[in-house]
From TrEMBL:
Lineage: superkingdom: Bacteria
Keyword Membrane (UniProt): yes
Name of this protein: Fimbrial assembly family protein
Bilayer-crossing regions: 27-50
Classification of source organism: Bacteria, Candidatus Woeseibacteriota
Annotated source species: Candidatus Woesebacteria bacterium GW2011_GWA1_39_21
UniProt keyword terms in alphabetical order: Membrane, Transmembrane, Transmembrane helix
Length: 175
């Protein structure tokens, strides 16, 4: 079809203006294409990054739960390690049991009427109070303990006489 131009020829745009308009149209169309491509890319990136963010949040929650579990395991491990270290640092780990055994051996030297009170077993020593009915029983106990050589040192203190208990004294013995 033919184009009819009703404009007078003096108002007709020149050839350079037509070329400039055509170039401007091409630039505008190119910019519009670039804009559309960038907009689509931005929407795709937003969708992809949103999906990735959800995945990372799920992983974060799983790792947080695992970290809490490992934290309690670590606390238990530190507690056990501390106990093991303290156990290794103890000298003569079973010394109280040995002392208890020696205390039981020393009970054999007491007469039948002896009454024992205030027993303390700690470290390398045993301390207790003994009440016996007579001076002979008192001397018998001391002689038997000294002759037994169970204890390295025997300290007798607080000797007293009470009407209904007899002779009461404290024994502190060390190995």
């Amino acid at each position: 079809m033919r184009q009819i131009n009703l404009l007078p020829t003096e108002f007709r745009p020149g050839r350079q203006v037509n070329l400039a308009v055509k170039k401007a149209e091409r630039v505008i169309l190119a910019l519009l294409g670039i804009y559309i491509i960038v907009a689509v890319a931005a929407l795709a990136a937003t969708y992809y990054l949103g999906k990735k963010l959800k995945t990372i949040n799920v992983e974060k929650q799983a790792l947080s739960a695992e970290l809490k579990g490992l934290s309690s395991v670590e606390n238990s491990t530190v507690y056990i390690r501390d106990r093991v270290t303290k156990y290794k640092l103890m000298e003569n780990k079973d010394i109280e049991m040995k002392n208890y055994g020696k205390f039981n051996e020393s009970l054999a030297f007491l007469p039948a009427d002896a009454k024992i009170t205030d027993v303390s077993i700690s470290g390398n020593s045993v301390t207790y109070s003994v009440g016996v009915g007579s001076v002979q029983s008192f001397s018998y106990v001391l002689k038997q303990l000294a002759d037994s050589q169970i204890y390295k040192d025997i300290l007798v203190s607080g000797i007293s006489y009470r009407q209904n208990e007899g002779y009461v004294f404290n024994l502190a013995m060390s190995f």
